[in-house]
Amino acid sequence: MPVTLVEVSHSFGRPLFDPISHTFAPGRLTGIVGPSGCGKSTLLGIVAGMIRPTTGRVERTSARCTWVFQNPHGVAQRRVLDHLSLPSLARGAPRREADTEARELLTTFGLGDRADVTFGALSGGEAQRLMLARAVASRPDLLLVDEPTAQLDRAMAAHVNGVMGHLAGSGAAVVIATHDPVTRDACDEIIDLASSGR
Ligand SMILES: Nc1ncnc2c1ncn2[C@@H]1O[C@H](COP(=O)(O)OP(=O)(O)OP(=O)(O)O)[C@@H](O)[C@H]1O
């Protein structure tokens, strides 16, 4: 199991949510839902090991963890394709193989015709999809995604949800913080922070 939370809660002056016990298991798509400010991103940070919870404990194996942040980030002047081939090149793949894999992933995420433009030329939704594609390219055991569909239209949101489901189907634990009811419905299980903490 990549990560298990045992009676975990967190406080920034005030408690954000009631203690949570949960195992994020391989092959499962888990949604973290609740209104703005209830602690969804904080809980992702705890799962990632970047935030130490105020109470409770986090048990983890040495799983490879990738986090897709809410705001896409990249190098404005660098080609889209180069952003995506980097994880494969870092693993030692030859350039041609890395580029082929990158182009396939771009197509999967509806960006097949954007390979040769610069990151700075992408729209917000395209940049967000590139971040998701790059996360998939890094072949994580645990994928944490913050609001993946916030900048996407309905059709593309449904497509991206399908890709994340597919990634879970290939054995990753996928955890998504979301406001989006469609994304919520696509999840296997839900942690609802709405009623806790305040
Ligand atoms: N480092 C910090 N120091 C103090 N307060 C913080 C810190 N990080 C987050 N908070 C506060 O904790 C609360 C929860 O923040 P968090 O970003 O986890 O919520 P969220 O549910 O992800 O919100 P949103 O849906 O708007 O992204 C907010 O009130 C936020 O201002």
Properties at a glance:
five-stranded parallel β-sheet, 198 residues, 6 helices, 23% strand, ABC-type lipoprotein export system ATPase subunit, ABC_transporter-like_CS, alpha/beta, ABC_transporter_ATP-bind, 35% helix, ATP hydrolysis activity, ATP-binding, 10 strands, Rossmann fold
Brief characterization of the structure:
It is built from 6 helices and 10 strands, in the order βββββαββαααβαβαβ. With 198 residues, the protein is of the alpha/beta class. Residues 1-194 form the ABC transporter domain.
Percent strand: 15-25%
Q: Strands of the largest sheet, in order across it?
A: 7-8-9-5-10
Average of pLDDT: 90
Indicate the overall shape.
globular
Keywords: ATP-binding, Lipoprotein, Nucleotide-binding, Transport
InterPro entries: AAA+_ATPase, ABC_transporter-like_ATP-bd, ABC_transporter-like_CS, ABC_transporter_ATP-bind, P-loop_NTPase
GO molecular function, one term: ATP hydrolysis activity
Protein name: ABC-type lipoprotein export system ATPase subunit
